[in-house]
Known about the structure:
Elements: H1 5-16, H2 25-35, H3 41-48, H4 52-60, H5 68-80, H6 86-95, H7 102-111, E1 155-164, E2 173-181, E3 186-193, H8 198-211, E4 220-223, H9 227-230, H10 232-240, E5 244-247, H11 257-269, H12 279-295, H13 307-317, H14 321-324
Parallel strand pairs: 1-4, 4-5
Antiparallel strand pairs: 1-2, 2-3
Amino acid sequence: MVASPAQIAFTAACTAHHLTPPLTNRVKAQLIDQLRADYPLQDLLAAAQIASSSYYDARHRQYRQDDPAFVDEIAFYHKHYPDMGYRRVTTELQRLGWDINHKRVLRIMQEHAWQCTLYQHPGRGYRFDSFEGHTGQIAPNRLHRRFKTDRPLQKIVTDISEFRWGHESIEERTFLAICLDLFNMEIVTWQLAPVVTVTLALSPVQELITYRPALPYRMTVHSDRGYQYQHARFVTYLKRHHVFQSMSRQGNCLDNAPVESCFAQLKVLTVNNHRYPDYATLKAALQHSIDYYNFRASKQALGKLAAVEYRQRWAIDHDFLQFAGFTPLTNAANRKSPVV
């Protein structure tokens, strides 16, 4: 179906004002008023997908004026936390004592073109795959996509992803290995290296097992079928520490979906929307993003709490205080040198 001139003009007006759907009737009416002198009203109403009664109601309604201080708070989060959508902004404002709901925050963000657009980036176009066939021992899929657990450090998922800086050549890249706790989606340990080795894959697991509190249950570590996870050194280390090993089915990334989602979030915060001139700058950005992901980024599934805060509250409520003080080594001062 060919778009009408009014529809083309309405879409262009939305783009010019950096507006993305869904739009409120108030915003639609304002755009229609701007274009009404050049296009038939009925065509504009069809382009905006708004009834004539709703349009006239929006034009003549006396809208309540928003508190400037409230609008300034939203502007602050849009400027300093551009990854936050209206739901997370609403959560942060409610923590500050504002008695508001998400619909009001969404309307204001739409009117000022403050909606989050970081997730619209298509990505950098490079992919890393460490699968080289059956090179070692294949562990059974113990998780079977049962990603929920009611206790910390029971189910750990791990993986490696690629990040690039500079001109994004193969000489300008580093690899990030993480261990993610499915209890609260917290990156408990991580490591960077210029190449993918068994040492890189094993280092976060070793760090986690070394610093974890005493557990009354066994831990399961789940990964894909990358050659480093099949290696005898990796398999033997888990067995020696009585840790179950689990692997995804071949070619099925959904079996390890939580860690893939975590990497996607980290790339939104870093390489998908920013360029880094050198490794040191990229490393600092990754350190900051991981700390932000753990300590600041609230999640609806965790009762609108950040990962570390959720774990600490759970530990206090269940009288499991060794978890309240357990802190992953994510700060720059605690990081080891990259391993090879």
